[in-house]
């Protein structure tokens, strides 16, 4: 009788997800040529989005003032607190949207490069799935979907950021987790789709190990916030997501095997 693998504790599982990204970075030493290919689209998209965020920061005060004419007659302290909250919400939401858009646009622009990275990682790990055509139009559809979900996450994080006193910190945490989940969702899609899993099956698989998926996604998102981190981390995120996808599948297979081996025993006990 096969013993089912013990369910990992959420905190330990979360850090195992962080470790999956670390294993992705390790491929810089194993497949340096292929990983370097991913720098090109990441750099192009990263520069454009960074320019947008910097522009927002430069004009943020003017934008906040334009949005809060009602506070002109308020006491200075109250007006400053409201404007600070709105400014933090706008900037936080913009950063969330930029991170998600970076992933979506980079995967779209650099699809041929990341296809090679993914395939090389699969072959290096062994038991690679058969060749599959992810498709240009599918990439566009997935990118648009990710950006729209990122916009929703940005709105949610922005609204949370408006909560007095704790809003800025709480909004940052909410943004990290929402964005992390979206990034992990998108990045693991290629490896899982290549193995015949549709969108519903992929969601079920990820939900079965939420903490690990979140650990990988949040770690990726935090790397993207470091200057130039997004450019260097993007190839590692593609490699790490391949490791993560295979781990999720292996654990599901182990659980299924354990359940099948115990089924006759349960049936015999019930007879």
UniProtKB/TrEMBL annotation:
Compartments it resides in: Membrane
Domain of life: Bacteria
Annotated InterPro entries: CysZ-like, CysZ/EI24
Keyword Transmembrane: yes
Stretches that traverse the bilayer: 36-60, 80-109, 146-166, 213-238
Record flagged with keyword Iron-sulfur: no
Any matching Pfam family: EI24
Membrane topology qualifier: Multi-pass membrane protein
Keywords, in A-Z order: Amino-acid biosynthesis, Cell inner membrane, Cell membrane, Membrane, Sulfate transport, Transmembrane, Transmembrane helix, Transport
UniProt protein name: EI24 domain-containing protein
Species per Swiss-Prot/TrEMBL record: Microbacterium gawkjiense
């Amino acid at each position: 009788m096969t013993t089912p693998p013990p369910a990992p504790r959420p905190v330990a599982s979360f850090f195992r997800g962080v470790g999956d990204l670390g294993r992705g970075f390790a491929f810089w030493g194993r497949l340096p040529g292929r990983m370097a290919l991913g720098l090109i689209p990441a750099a192009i998209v990263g520069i454009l989005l960074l320019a947008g965020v910097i522009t927002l920061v430069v004009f943020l005060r003017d934008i906040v003032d334009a949005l809060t004419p009602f506070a002109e007659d308020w006491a200075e302290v109250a007006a400053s607190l409201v404007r600070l909250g709105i400014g933090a919400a706008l900037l936080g939401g913009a950063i969330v949207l930029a991170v998600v858009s970076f992933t979506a646009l980079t995967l779209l622009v650099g699809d041929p490069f990341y296809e090679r990275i993914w395939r090389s990682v699969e072959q290096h790990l062994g038991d690679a799935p058969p060749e599959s055509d992810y498709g240009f139009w599918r990439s566009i559809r997935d990118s648009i979907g990710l950006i729209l979900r990122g916009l929703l996450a940005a709105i949610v994080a922005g609204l949370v950021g408006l909560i007095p006193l704790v809003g800025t910190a709480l909004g940052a945490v909410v943004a990290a987790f929402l964005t992390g989940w979206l990034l992990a969702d998108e990045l693991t899609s290629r490896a899982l789709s290549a193995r015949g899993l549709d969108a519903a099956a992929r969601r079920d698989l990820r939900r079965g190990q939420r903490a690990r998926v979140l650990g990988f996604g949040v770690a990726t998102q935090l790397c993207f916030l470091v200057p130039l981190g997004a450019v260097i981390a993007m190839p590692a995120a593609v490699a790490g997501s391949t490791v993560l996808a295979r781990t999720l599948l292996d654990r599901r297979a182990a659980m299924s095997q354990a359940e099948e081996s115990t089924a006759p025993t349960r049936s015999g006990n019930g007879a």
